[in-house]
Amino acid sequence: MLLETIPNFKFEDIEGNEVSLKDFVGKKTLIFMWASW
């Protein structure tokens, strides 16, 4: 399973709620990360 190879991390959603990657087990999920240095 792919989740076993990805470290669990926590982040905030657009409403400021803490979300964990484990919350999406079994669901199709698109993770979009963007950074500006």
TrEMBL record:
Origin: domain of life: Bacteria
Disulfide bond found in the keyword field: yes
Q: Which stretches make up the Alkyl hydroperoxide reductase subunit C/ Thiol specific antioxidant domain? A: 4-37
Could you list the residue ranges that cross the membrane? none
UniProt entry keywords in alphabetical sequence: Disulfide bond
Which Pfam families does this entry report, sorted A to Z? AhpC-TSA
Gene3D superfamilies to which the protein is assigned, alphabetical: Glutaredoxin
What's the protein here called? TlpA family protein disulfide reductase
Q: Whose protein is this, by species? A: Cytobacillus spartinae
